Amino acid sequence: MSNRLASEKSPYLLQHKDNPVNWWPWGDAAFATARTTDRPIFLSIGYATCHWCHVMEHESFEDAEVAQLLNDTFVNIKVDREERPDVDTIYMSACQVATGRGGWPLSIMMTPDMRPFFAGTYIPRTGRYGRDGMLQIIPRIAEMWRKDRPALEKIADNFLGALQNASTLDLAGGELSVQVLDAAFKYHEQQFDSVNGGFGHAPKFPSPERLRFLLRYWDRTGNTRALQMVEHTLQQMRRGGMFDQLGGGFHRYSTDPMWLLPHFEKMLYDQALLALVYLEAFQATGHLEYEQTVRSILEYVRRELQNTEGAYCTGEDADSEGVEGKYYVWSIEEVRSVLDPAAANLVTVAFNLTETGNYIDEATQDRTGNNILHRSPGDDLSDSARLFAASRQLFDLRAQRVRPLLDDKVLTDWNGLMIAALARCGAVLNDADLIRRAVKCAQFIEAHMVPERGRLLHRWREGEAAIAGMLDDYAYMVMGLLALYEATGEEDYCLWAMRLTQTVIAEFGDEDGGFYLTAQDSESLLLRPKQSFDSALPAGGAVMMMNLLRLGRITGKTELEAAGHDAIAAHSAGLRHYPDGFNAALSALDYALGPSSEVIVSGARSLVGTQEMLSVLRGIYAPNAVILSRPVFGGSNEPAIHVCHGSTCDLPTQDTEAVIALLQNATD
Q1: What is the model's pLDDT at position 362?
Q2: CATH number for the domain including 650?
Q3: In whole angstroms, what is the distance from residue 583 CA to residue 187 CA?
Q4: Are 259 and 384 members of one domain?
Q5: In terms of domains, do 227 and 287 share one?
Q6: pLDDT tens digits, 546-571
Q7: How many domains does the chain have?
Q8: Is position 351 within any domain?
Q9: Where are the alpha helices (DSSP H) in 205-287?
């Protein structure tokens, strides 16, 4: 029989609806039951495309013995972290306090009033290598709950105190200047892997916000080392197994230092953020490889993640038929059996296939005999027609395999990022279809995710929109709407961005600076969470810093720009001392320090001259310039360029090259 998750919309919760565990969804009913029955709560948080979430489900939540222990001891609650990032943020902080690390699945044991007393991630069914499993931990907790409740209460109080201290961490203090950017660059340079690209060792995440900051630092200072770090990383990722060499798009991260062995899930937010950084690298260098990578990413997103109404699904699983990566890997015998000898040899050499295989299972460390397709460092990716044809043949054959699960829910925040990526890429690459896709996605959000003027909902699936919008929903949507405004010149997008920004200031603002993750009228949780640091995603508060600065310049509303400066100042100590966690905020600081410019191309949009001016200006790398188009300016229909710096505007000009020189030399 199905448990209480059977009526939920989340694909992750539905994956667990037939578990013998008596799961509850997060809500008042579950907590009321815990209080009435005087039981602790077991909170399990994950997401539908999480490989180790599947492992724990199969080992423990489908196991009758473990399920009986859970049902006898706890009220068991399942949460989809992508539906409830507010809940996840609180209890992930508890895990980091307890263990020094985090990740999913997240396993929390807590009192009926939400105070945690145990926190961990993946827990095996039985103990191994000196680590207890579910069969050992649950009986011990049950006995303590019955016989030594004060000890658990004391642990819970200590947890709560640590979480409250972390949530009120004072990140303000100290003057902000270009020296902060210099120090951040030096930190990243020390972390840089000059052999493989990227930062640190393993696992390696793509870190697009760090790369975008480094591009801005190069643009400001002319420091070629910053650009070299970005290019080497982007090239190594593109050639590695983390990039799907046949189908496009990036997997979530690499489990090794060489970008070879990926964690195979594909997430919408990674595609949006990586499309943006490859686009900016193309603007900065003109290297066609980066443009081709952008187009490959966005084509994958269109083909596999776009729903029939133009919005974008959350992501694809790492597993297929219960095996991680099975959809993506190839044995050399399989390649030889489906391609003619010449094509098979071409593919074998180009994608580095071996007889023994290069895929080592992450859990067992066994060599499987399968290969992850990857290119050699320095490969010329302008492939021959023969290799393209052979790759296409493999892609078509792969499409006949059992696909990984598609998590088809629509999240407002991640779609906001994709709107931004599509709009910016469409404007820079002069691709009207990409802009149309951004418009269609925004129309979906407006039609389905706006319960009232200036408000957003967080999740949509199968016709149901639910869950009050959180900071990231507003911040990323404003980012997307401003990109659409720049790409189209349609003022409705700017007005919508303004309404959402006013909601953020009124409902999410913290009087001590920055922003809460939830609105004032949101559900009451253990505490009101804040997310100051970047994670795999840029912190919503940091995105709002940039939004406020740009929107203030676009609209001339100095109070918005002042709010952006205040938000940056509220995190000044974080920017100075923890650059790795504040890359998006560092980019906002770079903009705030200036110089920045507003460039308006006026003239009838139907005129060739107007479009040529826009195309050339959008093609350059000028991260601190807002480039807008307006149909007429000053009564003239002839195209002209108007440049403003701060509170000063230059005379109109038709000399595009002079404007480019002005923008590119602004920080010299």
Answers
A1: 66
A2: 3.40.30
A3: 12
A4: yes
A5: yes
A6: 999 999 999 999 999 999 999 999 99
A7: 3
A8: yes
A9: 208-221, 224-239, 268-285
